[in-house]
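task queued by scheduler; priority normal; single chain, no ligands, no partner chains; default sampling; output format set to structure tokens
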Amino acid sequence: MRRLIGRSLKISAPVLTGLLGMAALCLAFWAGPAAAEDVVGAPHAWGMGLQEAFGPVKEAIHDFNNLVLWIIIIISVFVTALLAYCVWRYRESANPTPSRTSHHTMLEVAWTVLPVLILLIIAIPSFRLIYYEDRARDADITINVQGRQWYWHYAYPDSGELAFDSRPIPTEDLKPGDLRNLTVDEPLVIPVGANVRVLTTGQDVIHSFFVPSLGVQKYTIPGRTLETWFRADHEGTFYGQCNQICGTNHWFMPIVVKAIPQAQFQAWLDEAKKKYATNETAPPAAIAAQPAAVATTQLAEAGR
């Protein structure tokens, strides 16, 4: 095959080998993220830009990011072209006697009004995105998220006193296929297609609940309850981390969200109620926090 291609195109063997190698590298580059089908929302090697969107919130973030990116590109091209023109047009050889003009009313008005208009173009969709992320509309499920040093505590107030801790798995205990520094013992399980209301609070210091591929990021602040929401439109596993410096083990505070079909979620819910009924795996602090989690949800509902 290589000889046939080389003869028909009259390409030398070293050049042909290099081209084929580059083609294989490109195929590996594009196929890398897709090869790991079970790892849906996670960073991958040679990734560029934002993580792929798997929910409406992240899609809205992508749209706003693309809008701002194109505005930046247009401004950069315009400024670069204008600078190049000024250097060429007003060089010493072509303009031996430079003008001493220090004011130009129309020019000064233009470079004041145009940036204001650009900021308005950015501000309007920016505010819309902020309000879109702020509160859940017709939430199907509510989950209380509490950041602790250095693990996460999840509670499902819609399902009674279901609550559990999610802790990172050390590198030496990882199984084949697990992601280092991102795998946990108990993931946050949600149904696919459900609007998930998230109520965050902190136990000790400020943490941040951040899952990039779902577009959710909210601080967990002691003494305060904050609300946000997300939805996973695809079945899969989505990884995140605390992105607020919260102490010595801040780097080791991963988040795993697992989206499964509604029937499987109901089966998991029934099993989880039995598994965590006596809270044998939860420390005393987690048991004490459960009534507070339910009260937090009721307080948030009253304030809506």
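post-processing summary
- The helical segments are 2-9, 13-35, 56-89, 105-134, 262-275, 284-302.
- The CA atoms of residues 157 and 294 lie 6 Å apart.
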